[in-house]
Amino acid sequence: MFFRGDFLIIFCACVFLKNISSLETTTPEINLLPVNYLLKFINKLENCVKRDPNLIRFYVANNLRNSSSYTEIILNDILSLQNSGLVRNLPLKVLIHGIDQSLTAQFPQDVKNAYLRSEQILTKNILIVDYGAMANIKTESQLNGFDYPICYVQAVLNTATAGTRIAQLIQFIMDNGYAQLNDTHIIGHSLGGHVGGFAANHLQTLNGGKKPARLTALDPAAPGFRPKVLPVRPMTPDDAIFVDVIHTNQICFGVLGPVGQVDIFVNFALFLQPPCVGNITLKGFLVETLPDVLSLGSWCSHGASITYFSQSISDSLSVATGVLGATGHTAILGENCSPSTYPGQYLYLEGNFNPGTYPSLRLWKPIYPDFINNALSWRS
Ligand SMILES: *[C@@H]1O[C@H](CO)[C@@H](O)[C@H](O)[C@H]1NC(C)=O
Ligand SMILES: *[C@@H]1O[C@H](CO)[C@@H](O)[C@H](O)[C@H]1NC(C)=O
Ligand SMILES: *[C@@H]1O[C@H](CO)[C@@H](O)[C@H](O)[C@H]1NC(C)=O
């Protein structure tokens, strides 16, 4: 992993190389392999993850009769807010997806659908954030395996920009009387947990230190954040009045250990959730590469936090048992977790759940042949 200083050096070198690239035809001596590789690298980075917060979209999903009908709110466009379908004096739910997802992904769709299904009349405003353009790792078809981690790093470095814009949009809604800070609940999955933390923290800055009511992080992302090897701000237990976390995949994509006030570990959240065990099959071991098989099972487990949360919306019966710091106490998993829950760590055991439609990420598969090919070409 890179450190801040390394990034600056790489970044400066890249800018320098990009500027001199126009001279390439007249100065063939710089047309060496590392130069070409770096130029290719920068161009791909620009293609895979954008950095412009104007590309973030905000959708209201308040239509009880048609859950796939949305209206869009544009920052500082009063008309778009008035026509958005937001209802005054209702609590606000803000859904923030994770890496390589967007409006149509399992998160936010499952959570939004569960909210809409659970009611006869609208009792909450649902705002979906789509920052897919700033968190994409595989849109560009020419990407090869080496680019995935690079694009991820850029998406991580975008957390502050995305979080700030989300806070500004929520502030815009509040300033016009469509939401209150003490009734705002931000829910983020994976990278979205940290983006949500940043947004919640920025709302504090905009409101003289007052915090939003709640932040729920679903298996907040580990890489880059814990250990903190990138210059980013991970979510903290102080980002909102109440911060609860559901962990499902601590050892791979989700953070290891507690990061909220109430942390619930489902099935110990070590590596594989029960329905994801099937992803690791004998055929998998024989036909796929081992890292690919592991990332499939782990990715499925990372997505399981979405399903546990979605299911919790129409159910207050999933009770977790207090362990570290909370022995003798209980916590309700997910939506109905009370802000007065005793702080600490909790364990929830669950055998059956519907794994949902979290898309598989063949993260390591393309990397592996690249390594082999490169190794072979280096030898020859
Ligand atoms: C629901 O809304 C979507 C988007 O506006 C539309 O395409 C679809 O036809 C609507 N479905 C129904 C059943 O009205
Ligand atoms: C939020 O604050 C307002 C104004 O102080 C108050 O009227 C309202 O009851 C509060 N709402 C909640 C959910 O605490
Ligand atoms: C992983 O397992 C789940 C549950 O059996 C299944 O729905 C999903 O399609 C599997 N994913 C892959 C990539 O095999």
Automatic annotation (TrEMBL):
Keywords: Signal. Belongs to the AB hydrolase superfamily. Lipase family. Residues 1-22 form the signal peptide. This is Lipase domain-containing protein. GO terms for biological process: lipid catabolic process. It holds the Pfam family Lipase. InterPro entries: Lipase (IPR013818), TAG_lipase (IPR000734). GO terms for cellular component: extracellular space. GO terms for molecular function: lipase activity; serine hydrolase activity. Residues 56-316 form the Lipase domain.
